[in-house]
Structures are given as structure tokens and as C-alpha cells.
């Protein structure tokens, strides 16, 4: 074997060993870099994913919180508005009912007082008219009958004379009462009750 052949073999062997060693080192370095890159990528991806998840969770939480707050606020507002409207309606209804009751009570009291005053005035007017009619009738009857003889007692009058005098007095009294009531406010129809009372009073005279 010549030296050339030996050198060639040695070179080949050396090259193979060098290539193997170089390949191993390159593979190791590449693996390290790949691992480091993967780790960095994973870390970055995890961070980005966490951030995105946190943002989405925060948004969802905020939306839910806002909805809950809005519902609570709306309920509170509705209750407050309902109470306010109820109070206002109650006050309005109370005032209306009070006014209605006041008017009704006023009318009732007015009618009662009017009736009472009417009765009192009727009685007073009846008495006054009766007295006036009696006086007037007496004067008229005295004028028509002439001056009576004071020396002759009443018992000496005959029954016919007494009946005639009574009829004359009644007729005169009726005319006098009609005259009086024609001058009163409302006329005879308004004072019909009083008129009947006075007629009854005249019949008793």
C-alpha cells in the first residue's frame, strides 16, 4: 500500500469523523434553538391567549354586571315612580272625594237649614198674617155692622143675626188673607201651606 492510498484513507476517515461530529453539533445546536424557539413561542402564545381570555372574561363580566345594575336600577326606579304615582293619585282622589263629600254635605245642610228656616218663617208669617187678618177682619166687620149698642148685652142677639155676622166675618177674613198673600213674595202658590193654616185659624175664630 502506498502512501497516497494511506493518506487518502486517512483523509476520508478524518472527513467522516469531522462530518459526523459537525453534524452532531449542528443537530444539537439546532435542537437547542428549536426548543428555545418553541418555548418562547409557547410562552408568547400563552401570554396572548391569557390576555385575550382575560379581556373576553372582563367584557362578559362587565356586561353581566351592567345588565344586573340596569335591572336593579330599573326596578328601583319603577318602584319609586309607582309609589309617587300612587301617592299623587291618592291625594287627587282624596281631594276629589273631599270636595264631593263637602258639596253633598253642604247641599244637605243647606236643604235642611232652608226647610227649617222656611218652616220657621212660615209659622212666623202665618202668625203675623193671622193677627193682621184678624184685626182687619174685626175692623171691617165692625164697620159693616155699625157701631154696636154697648148698653145691650151680647146674649140679646138672635141666632139669625149671629149667623149672619159670622158669615160676614169669614168672607171678609178670606178676602183679607187673599189680599195679604197676593202681596207676599212668591204669591199664593208658594205660601199655600201657610194659607191653609190661616184658613184653619180663621175657621176657629
UniProtKB/TrEMBL annotation:
Start and end residues of each stretch annotated as Disordered: 1-174
Residue stretches of biased makeup (Low complexity): 82-147
Domain of life: Eukaryota
Basic and acidic residues: compositionally biased ranges: 1-81, 151-173
Protein name per its UniProtKB record: Uncharacterized protein
Organism: Dreissena polymorpha (Zebra mussel)
Amino acid at each position: 500500500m502506498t502512501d497516497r492510498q494511506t493518506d487518502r484513507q486517512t483523509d476520508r476517515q478524518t472527513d467522516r469523523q469531522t462530518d459526523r461530529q459537525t453534524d452532531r453539533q449542528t443537530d444539537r445546536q439546532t435542537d437547542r434553538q428549536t426548543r428555545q424557539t418553541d418555548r418562547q413561542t409557547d410562552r408568547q402564545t400563552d401570554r396572548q391567549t391569557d390576555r385575550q381570555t382575560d379581556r373576553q372574561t372582563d367584557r362578559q363580566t362587565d356586561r353581566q354586571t351592567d345588565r344586573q345594575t340596569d335591572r336593579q336600577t330599573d326596578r328601583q326606579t319603577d318602584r319609586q315612580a309607582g309609589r309617587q304615582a300612587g301617592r299623587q293619585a291618592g291625594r287627587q282622589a282624596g281631594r276629589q272625594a273631599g270636595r264631593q263629600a263637602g258639596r253633598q254635605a253642604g247641599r244637605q245642610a243647606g236643604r235642611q237649614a232652608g226647610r227649617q228656616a222656611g218652616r220657621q218663617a212660615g209659622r212666623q208669617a202665618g202668625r203675623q198674617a193671622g193677627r193682621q187678618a184678624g184685626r182687619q177682619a174685626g175692623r171691617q166687620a165692625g164697620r159693616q155692622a155699625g157701631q154696636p149698642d154697648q148698653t145691650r148685652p151680647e146674649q140679646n142677639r138672635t141666632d139669625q143675626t149671629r149667623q149672619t155676622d159670622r158669615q160676614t166675618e169669614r168672607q171678609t177674613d178670606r178676602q183679607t188673607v187673599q189680599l195679604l198673600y197676593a202681596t207676599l213674595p212668591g204669591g199664593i202658590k208658594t205660601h199655600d201651606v201657610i194659607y191653609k193654616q190661616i184658613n184653619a185659624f180663621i175657621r176657629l175664630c
